[in-house]
Amino acid sequence: MSKRPRKYNVLNILMNFHAFPDEVENKYCLAECVVPVGAGAPPNHHAGKTEAFYVLEGQVGFMIDGQERLAGAGDYVPIPDGAVHAFQAVGEAPARLLILNAPGHMHEAFFTGVGQALPEDQTSRPAPSEPDIPMVMAKAEETGMTILAPA
User: Fold this and answer.
1) 52, 83 in Cβ contact below 8 A?
2) How many beta carbons lie within 10 A of that of residue 27, not counting itself?
3) Using CA atoms, how far apart are residues 104 and 106, in angstroms rounded to an integer?
4) pLDDT per residue over 70-85, tens digit each?
5) Which of 107, 147, 149 minimizes the C-alpha distance to 15?
6) What is the dihedral of CA 117, 77, 50, 44, to 10 degrees?
7) Residue 29: predicted pLDDT
8) Nearest one of 57, 101, 59, 107 to 79, comparing CA atoms
9) What is the mean pLDDT of the chain?
C-alpha cells in the first residue's frame, strides 16, 4: 500500500497535513501552512463545518463576516459556523499557521483536490503560480464549499 502525500502546494501555500480525518476517527483535519505574503484564501463559506486558525509566525489579515482582524503569533481565530471568511498573509515575511477543520472531510477533499502533491522532504515554499480559477471553483462546488467571486 503506497503512502499518501501529506504535503501539497495549495494556491501557493505549502500545506503539511498532520492529521487527515480518517486517521482521527473522522473528527478533524489538521494542517500546518506556510503562507507567502499576499497569498491566502478567497472569501468562502460552508455551513456545518467548523474551522479555526492558530497563527504560529508572521501576520495574517482575516475578514470574517465583513469584519477585518489582524492576527499575529499566538492568536487563535475561530470562524463562526457558516460565516463568510477569508485570510491573507501580510507584513514582511511569510506566515505560518495551523488550520483545524472539523469534521474535515470537505476541506481535505478541497485542499488535496486543488493542490499539487509535493515530496515529503520539501520544506521550501513552491514557486508562485497563477491558480486555475475555473478548476478551483469547480472543486469548491463539488466538495460543498462556496467561494465568492470578487466584487
Assistant:
1) no
2) 11
3) 6
4) 999 999 999 999 999 9
5) 107
6) -70
7) 97
8) 101
9) 94
CA distance 3 to 93: 32
Cell numbers at residue 126, please? Answer: 513552491
Beta strand 95-102 pairing with 50-57: antiparallel
Q: Return the number of other C-beta atoms located less than 10 Å from residue 62's C-beta.
A: 20
Question: Residues 115, 10: contact at Cβ < 8 Å?
Answer: yes
* CA dist., res. 104 & res. 53, Å (int): 13
Which residues are bridge partners to 142 per DSSP?
Answer: none
Contacts of 71 by beta carbon, 8 Å cutoff, 6+ apart: 53, 55, 59, 60, 61, 62, 77
